Amino acid sequence: MLGGRLCDTPLELGQKLSEDQGGNPVDRRRYQRLVGKLIYLSHSRLDIATAVSMVSQFMHAPKSSHLEAVMRILRYSKVSPAKGLYFSKHGHLSVEAFTDADWVGSVTDKRSTSEYYTFVGGNLFTWRSKKQNVVTRSSAEAEFRAMA
Questions:
Q1: CB pairs under 8 A, 24+ apart, for 51-57?
Q2: Distance separating alpha carbons of residues 37 and 124, to the nearest angstrom
Q3: SS3 (DSSP) at 128
Q4: Is the distance from CB of 66 to CB of 21 less than 8 angstroms?
Q5: Which of 44, 46, 95, 122 could make an S-S bridge to 90, C-beta 3.0–4.6 Å?
Q6: What is the pLDDT of residues 14-60, one digit of tens each?
Q7: Neighbouring residues of 25: CB distance < 8 A, sequence distance ≥ 6
Q8: Are 69 and 59 in contact (CB under 8 A)?
Q9: d(CA 30, CA 74)
Q10: pTM for the predicted model, two decimal places
Q11: Dist. CA 144–CA 52, nearest whole Å
Q12: What's the rounded Cα separation, in Å, for the pair 76 and 22?
């Protein structure tokens, strides 16, 4: 990866990964080791968290297209080594929370992903993303479930 080409984003714009995606099967153990290290890195690098969440769904049967997505995340991480969590003093301890959902974000099972972020004193404190338990019929319903 030292001499490889670099990229500006962890995933291609609008890229959707699925189990049915073409490509040859790859070494599962190698894929799991790479994604496991990226999961650990994503605890302090929110810019790759969504991309790592997407590629971690295929740990049981990865294909070459999934491995290409992992390699793209690694190339992006090489470009932006200084990105990560930064805590600064803002002089207040107000609590702010934000939530979002992507409607039918998963190509495989048509379920949406809910996300939330909590800030304390202007600094990111907690975050989470999770697939919703049911398939929603509209983006409004997906957003409502995310808030709930």
A1: 51/10, 51/11, 51/76, 53/113, 53/129, 54/11, 54/17, 55/17, 57/17, 57/106, 57/108
A2: 22
A3: strand
A4: yes
A5: 122
A6: 788 888 777 899 999 999 999 999 998 888 888 888 889 889 989 99
A7: 61, 62, 63, 64
A8: no
A9: 14
A10: 0.66
A11: 25
A12: 23
H-state helical runs in 2-148: 28-42, 49-55, 64-79, 139-147
3-state secondary structure of 133: coil
* 3-class secondary structure, 30: helix
Rg (CA), the chain: 17
Residue type, 71: M
Q: Name the token pair of 6.
A: 């670099």
Residue showing tokens 């690694």: 74
